[in-house]
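User: Sequence for Daunorubicin/doxorubicin resistance ABC transporter ATP-binding protein DrrA below. Tokens please.
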Amino acid sequence: MNDHAANSDDATEYAVHAEAVRKRYGDTYALDGFDLAVRTGTVHGLLGPNGAGKTTAVRAFATLLKLDGGRATVAGADVRTDPRTVRARIGLTGQYAAVDEILTGRQNLEMFGRLFHLGGRRAALRAGELLERFDLVDAAGKGVREYSGGMRRRLDLAASMILAPRVLFLDEPTTGLDPRGRGEVWDAVRALVAGGTTVLLTTQYLDEADKLASRITVIDRGRAIADDTPDGLKNTVGGDLIEVVVRDERELTVAAEVVARVAGSVPATDTEARRVHAPVTDRVAALTDVARELRDRGIAAEDIGLRRPSLDDVFLRLTGHRTEEAPAGATTATTTKAKIEVAA
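Assistant: Structure tokens for Daunorubicin/doxorubicin resistance ABC transporter ATP-binding protein DrrA:
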């Protein structure tokens, strides 16, 4: 873990602070010595593939799972010894909107307000505030079944903010949304952070982490394998990348040999995309040399060019594979249950 995280347990500096946490299911560790430090008032991305431990970490920090080892504090409270205080200071939104389609947007928020023991009048006032904050006033009286995907997610975010939590856990909040819906959720998240909320965002979408997070932790097999700013992570890949896409997968080996010779390093290979790439220093010379040698060796490249590294390149280098599409599997019922358990 980075020195800045290891040397401080100041709740005003870190809204979430975990050291060597473990969670085991049978003989398998979902979290295996996981470290995390989330600065207060920021969006911190938790990036990893299916089964990496992202959701397990969030559920443990939200006190929905008991850790088997290590220590974690959230908003200044210990998740193992003081779970009630943690629950009073957090919000949680899962992968799918936990709202009732039969009710209107306003009725949903008032219902959650009562679940959080606000009472009828206070629940109604808070619902009105949140409808305005999340730009849902015009749709407040409509049944949620009439909402777009982005509107449902915004309503779900609003429900998580009933008690104005210090820390909000967002577990893959834009799963299944179209680009417009994702943009709406991103705007809502930025507004929350501007208002002082700390957000821990788990995602498999690299562009989402890049656009929202000021810092990103990459998790794989239950451990943090990298922690830096988005630009810092990209810099670990190197400068410009030369990239070759071949027409036939059988030509990948030759293309990789050519790129390796010119770049002076072992290139990353994506068999499915029929693509190889590697960092280079002299971009123009590298492009010329690769194009010439591919031609001389009879390889007809579908595409060849130079580009800046992306988080996808970082992820591929760190884990040996690219991120996968977000999984389907959580249900509205289980997500609603999680939200109510946190409220209890």
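Residues 48 and 219 are 5 Å apart (CA to CA).
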